Amino acid sequence: MAARILHRLRHALAGEGGREEPAGGGGGEAEDCPESSELEDDTEGLSTRLSGTLSFTSHEDDEEEEGDGASEELEEPPQAPGAAAGTEDGEWVSAAERPGGSLLTRQLQELWRRSRGSLAPQRLLFEVTSASVVSERSSKYVLYTIYLIRSGQFDKAPATIARRYSDFEQLNRRLRCRFSCDMASVAFPRKRLRRNFTAETIAKRSRAFEQFLSHLHSIDEIRRSPEFLEFFFLPDLQAAQRLTCTGMYREALATWANAHRLQDRLGVCNSGRFLLTLAGLAVCHQELDQLSEAHGCCEQALQLLEAQGSHPLLGPFLQAHVHLAWKVGKDKRRSEARLQDLREAGLPLQQQPSLKECLIKEPLE
User: Fold this and answer.
1) Angle formed at CA 232 by CA 88 and CA 181, multiple of 5 degrees
2) Which residue in 316, 319, 318 sits closest to 355, CA to CA?
């Protein structure tokens, strides 16, 4: 992204009116990048950005296609090289703006500060920050780590996903089955029989996946579809549920929190999945004796349930909120009144499952 901005600004300063030359020649490998796209090809810039994060777990020169083995459990993704760091007041400070930074960098910083106050609508950006070649017993594949970034804002805790080529391919296939007309103009990188694990191929596919997700997100019907949304957060919800069921609350908490951030970036904070995420956060915080945080999650859920007279999670959230409010010394009268209303309506609260029981029994498919 920074490479594209630098490229445009150089042309503007040179008096070329921001006009960009076509990237690469016509003899490139068509299968590596989308056949059509609204974004320019910047494979060279992406290769530079990924140069410090490409990770090869095997030194074998394997030219076979990616296998179908399941991915391993992921560690915390590394910070993208050259990425800016946020200061306390929300300003971006680039590493290039330290002593010795260029005039061009300072101009970019000033341009960004001025643009923060504009009325342009925010949009979601998808940026591949690292790629790892993973070798398992029967397969070898590339795992791409992608950040979801809201333009014009600094996210202290980024929302991340890690997906392999077969995951993107499955999403592409499902969307083409349901949205054949809308997907006609969306390009997807085709498979290759050789050289799948070279740095050049990985960089080209990384760029293609960024464009692919951006194009999908720009189409209203696809952006709101369960197929597109659950591609991002359903794997985290499933993993968090498994960790919670096995009592690994600290690990589960981190996974629930990332699922929360993903749904927030995607703008689906009114869905049943989001309420389940809040339930997971509340349960894990409570099990880790972080009662104030658990109380806050219950309050957020009850605000979302304010307009609903009945919901399977309403009773459990109210009971958890009353218990936690008593523990942390907060006002619980409103929740007690709502519980009384439910009793008068004939709801057997004594038979209601706890928030943790609801969380464990909820099928996530």
Assistant:
1) 125
2) 316
pLDDT (tens digit per residue) in 316-342: 999 999 999 999 999 999 999 999 988
Q: Kind of pairing, strands 124-135 and 55-56?
A: parallel
The answer to whether the CB of 188 falls within 8 A of the CB of 33 is no
φ and ψ of 206, to 5 deg: -60, -45
Residue 196 tokens read as: 């799948």
Query: Which two structure tokens, joined as six digits, stand for 16?
Result: 């070329």
Q: Where are the alpha helices (DSSP H) in 156-246?
A: 165-178, 199-217, 220-223, 226-245
Distance CA 358, CA 276 (A): 9
Looking at residue 349, what DSSP letter applies? G
Residues listed for the chain: 365
Rounded-to-integer distance, Cα 44 and Cα 200, Å: 9
Instruction: Give the 3-state secondary structure of residue 277.
Output: helix
Q: Which residue has the tokens 């101009």?
A: 107
Amino acid at 10: R
pLDDT digits (tens, 9 = 90+) for 29-43: 444 444 444 344 555
Dist. CA 358–CA 164, nearest whole Å: 31
